[in-house]
Amino acid sequence: MTDVFVVGAGMIKFGRYPDRTYFQLGAEAALMALDDAGVSIKDVGAVYASSTFNAASMLGQKILQQIGQTGVPCINVSNACASGASAVREAFTGIKSGLYDIVLVVGAEKNPSGMLGGSPVAGPPPEGLFGSVTMPALFAEAGMVHANAYGTTLEQFAQVAVKNHHHATMNPKAAYQKETPLDMVLASEMIAYPLTKLMCSANVDGAAALVLVSDKKARELGMARAVRIRGSAMASDVFEPRSPEILEPNSVTRLAAARAYEMAGVGPEDLDLVELHDCFATAEILHYENLGLCADGEGGRMVSSGVTALGGRIPVNVSGGLLSKGHPIGATGVANMVEIVEQLRGEVGARQVSGARIGMTHVLGFGGSSAAGVHIFEKA
Prior knowledge:
Layout: E1 4-11, H1 22-37, E2 46-50, H2 59-67, E3 74-77, H3 83-96, E4 102-109, H4 135-150, H5 154-168, H6 182-187, E5 190-192, E6 195-196, E7 206-214, H7 215-221, E8 227-236, H8 252-264, E9 273-275, H9 281-290, H10 299-304, H11 321-324, H12 329-345, E10 358-366, E11 370-379
Parallel strand pairs: 2-3, 2-4, 9-10
Antiparallel strand pairs: 1-7, 1-8, 4-7, 5-6, 8-11, 10-11
Helix pairs in contact: 1-2, 3-12, 5-9
Enzyme class: transferase
Pfam families: Thiolase_C_1, Thiolase_N
Keywords: Lipid transport, Lipid-binding, Transferase, Transport
C-alpha cells in the first residue's frame, strides 16, 4: 500500500464571521490548501468535509459550489470534536487503499453563541440549565478527580492557560493573541471549579484544509515540503464504569494513541511537538498522561516545569491551542494538523519548534459517548 503525504495546508484566521457562511469559510481554506499544494480542484479525486453544527447541510458539496463542481464524491463527517480527525482518517484510508491519488479535506464551522454543552434533544439536566452534563462541568470533575488522586493544583491547571495564551501571541491566525499572566487566569470568572473562564476553550468560527496525496503523486509534485502521515488512528468507547472516561486506562485517547504509535513505529519519546485537545485546561494535563508524554500523576508537574512550553523538551499546543487559537469544532482537528505540517516544514516564524521532525495531533470528541483521533506526522 502507498504512503500518504500532506502536500497542501491552509487555514483562515479564527474568529467571528457574522457576514459569511460556514461553507464560504470552508471554501477559502480549501483554496488556500490547493494553492499551497500547487494543484486545482480538477485534480482532486474526492472531498472529505467535517463539521458538527453544520454537518447536516452537505458541507462538501456547498464548498464545491464555491470553488468548482467536478462530480467527485463528497463525504461529510460529523463526530463531535473529533470530526476533523475522522475526515482525515477517512481520506487517509481512501489514498492508502489506492482508490485515490489526491483528496481534499476541509473542516469548517460557525459555532452558535453561548456555552456548548449537553444534548439539545434531551433538554436541560435536572439540576438546572448549568448542570453536570455540560462540558465545563464534566472536565472540571475530571480535573478534580485527578487533583484528588495526584495532588494536582489549581495553579498547575491555570499554567496551561498561561502557556497556551502566550503561544498564541505568536500565531497571527489565532482568535486571541493576548498574554494572560497566572494571576489574571486565576482571577477570571469561575465557570466550573477549578476552571475559570480563561481556562476554557474559545468558541469561534473557523476553517482549515489539507491536501493528501499518494506516494506517487507526492513525488510528481515534489517532496521538498511534503509531510508523511506515519500513523492514523481512531477509537471509541470501552465500557469502564468506575470513573470518568477521560481518566480510564482504557480511555479512547489511550486506545487511539497506542494504535497510532504502533502504526508509526515510534513512541512518545520520539515526538518533537504535540497539538492536543485542550478544550479545557484540565484536559491538557490529563492528555499528557493519556498520550504517554509522562507517567500517570505527573501531568501537573510537567506543565509547571516548562517542559511543554515553546523551548521545552516536548512543546504542546504551540499554536495557542483551543484555549486561545480557538475551537471551531468541526475545523479543530484539521487545524491542529495544519499547525504540525507547517511546523515540520519550518514555516511558522517566532513559534517555530527548532529541528522538529515528528509531530502528533490529538482530538477528543466527547458528549455522553466518545471518539478520539491521533495522527503522527514526519517531515519527508
